[in-house]
Structures are given as C-alpha cells and as structure tokens.
C-alpha cells in the first residue's frame, strides 16, 4: 500500500515514515499542501495522511483539491493534526477528510486507520 504523508515538521515526518514502513507501507512525503496536491495528482496512493496546518497551501484546501482531481478523488484522506477538535475537526470533515488522528501520535489509532481505509499496509 502506498501512503502520501503530508507533514511540514521533518521530525514528525521521519517518525511517521518509520512507523508506516514498519507496517509495510510505501511512503511518499510532502512538506506542504501544494506539494501534496502535485503528488496526489499522480496515481497509486491508497491513503493520504494530511496535516492541517501547512505552509504554502493549508491541509483543508489541499484536501479539497486532491479530492477534486480525477486521479485522486477516490483516495481516502485522513487528517493528522494537533487541531482535530471542535470547529477545526468539523472543517476537516467538510473539506473531505474521513477521520482525524490527533497529535501527539496515537500509533494504535494510526494502525486502525490503515486497516479501515486502506486494508492495512501488509496487503
């Protein structure tokens, strides 16, 4: 399974990448929303893990653009952010996110998300 990991903090990306690769995922990293939209326009992603607070293009708008593109409109997008509560959580769902993983990282929740939206990385 191929995961697009969108996160602007290098250390968080590195930690998430290591976890996802241990789960058997192929990981492509994007450091901002614009980069994420460009990568997602290609094909082959099974899941997008999207930070919401990003430079260049925020995660909400990046999600909308990814889901509007013919090559990626079917790909589940899951918000991955410290801002997964209240109004911001609702805004993420309105943008098209199907779930929200709150930082700091809950690896059990990430594993459940992998199984729920992409049948797990081991497949």
List descriptors:
123 residues; alpha/beta; Rossmann fold; five-stranded parallel sheet; 5 helices; 5 strands; 44% helix; 19% strand; globular
Write up this protein.
- With 123 residues, the chain is an alpha/beta fold.
- The protein has a single domain, classed as Response regulator (Rossmann fold, 3-Layer(aba) Sandwich), CATH 3.40.50.2300.
- It is 44% helix and 19% strand.
- The protein contains 5 helices and 5 strands, in the order βαβαβαβαβα.
- The protein has helices spanning 10-22, 33-41, 59-68, 86-95, 107-118; strands spanning 2-6, 26-30, 47-50, 77-81, 99-102.
- A 5-stranded parallel sheet has the order 2-1-3-4-5, with helices on both faces.
- β4 (77-81), α4 (86-95) and β5 (99-102) form a beta-alpha-beta unit.
- α2 runs parallel beside α3 (59-68).
- The longest helix has 13 residues, at 10-22.
């Amino acid at each position: 399974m191929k995961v697009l990991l969108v996160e602007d903090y290098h250390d968080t990306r590195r930690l998430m990448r290591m976890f996802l690769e241990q789960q058997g995922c192929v990981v492509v990293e994007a450091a901002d929303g614009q980069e994420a939209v460009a990568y997602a326009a290609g094909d082959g992603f099974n899941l997008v893990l999207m930070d919401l607070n990003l430079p260049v293009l925020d995660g909400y708008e990046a999600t909308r653009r990814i889901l509007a593109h013919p090559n990626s409109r079917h790909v589940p997008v899951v918000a991955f952010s410290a801002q997964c509560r209240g109004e911001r959580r609702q805004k993420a769902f309105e943008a098209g996110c199907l779930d929200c993983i709150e930082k700091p990282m809950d690896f059990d929740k990430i594993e459940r998300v992998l199984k729920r939206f992409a049948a797990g990385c081991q497949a």
